[in-house]
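User: Please predict the structure of the protein below. I'd like the answer in structure-token form so I can feed it into my own downstream comparison script.

Assistant: Understood. Taking the following sequence of 342 residues as input:
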Amino acid sequence: MEIIQSVRWTGDGLGVRIIDQRLLPGRLVERDLRTLDDVVEAIRTLAVRGAPAIGIAGAMGLVAVLAPNANAGRDAVVALARDAAAAIRATRPTAVNLPWALDRLLTRAQRTSGDGYAVVDALRAEATCILDEDRAMCRRIGEHGAALLHDGARVLTHCNAGALATGGIGTALAPIYVAAERGMRLEIFVDESRPLLQGSRLTAWELRRAGLHVTVLTDGMAAALMRERGIDLCIVGADRVAANGDVANKIGTYGLAIVARHHAIPFVVAAPSSTLDPSTPTGCEIVIEQRAPEEVLVIAGVETAPDDVCVYNPAFDVTPADLVSAIVTDKGVHRAPYSLVE
């Protein structure tokens, strides 16, 4: 089973190599990010996407920005780190992993003595730790979540929370990969995830690349699928989980959770512990990113609606905790009351 690696250091260790996810599934193209503009553009335009991968790319990208300036001296490098981190942080306001990773590097920079080279080296080591920890975290989520699956299970997922969205084997897809490694036969159904089609373009692509059985459906077909063909489990990722268990995830997740509840299908969220945000009491306080109208009005260069209509295009929605059957993290399987999840 071949699982893709979405983000890593370049060969010289001075840049970040990502898969440009905007070009999938048609072309597999890797890009090297070496400047602040590279990093900001890649995250903002979803060349790299998925909450864990964004955090990793942001941390590693900060190091790439600082590396050419290591000779400027410690204080100058630390100041540049703060400014660059602010620019990277502003690209995606909803996912908590990005500010979490950047703050971790800034704290390390403040605590590092020596010259500018020492600061850059320390931050490179810290960013590498974040990458390695994410890989281990994905594996633990997979191990915990696989216990919720059985041989022959029919699983529905939304958007992409697989290897392309993380540094490892994914969050929502990690239990699927682990279960497949153990010999379970699974049938995976994937919402296309409008408007950017992360499900059909990315999830279906990486699952097929790994040799798994995949069926793609439009978002509006999930209810009919559940009624007519049956689903054993819905599993999705998360960009932020509030202290009460409310979950911000790709737009369409909320509707899927409602439909799953109607059909008595368990609705499971898989996310790293870093996505749990105890400082945000409920989902009402989560800032939801509004994206460009063109994402809805145009598909593959073809206009799909009059260009003078208004467009509602939030990148995420919030699923209330009472619709969530379980939250699987690297620390285990958590159930309500989610105020216990820390």
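That's the full token string. The first helix runs from residue 36 to 44.
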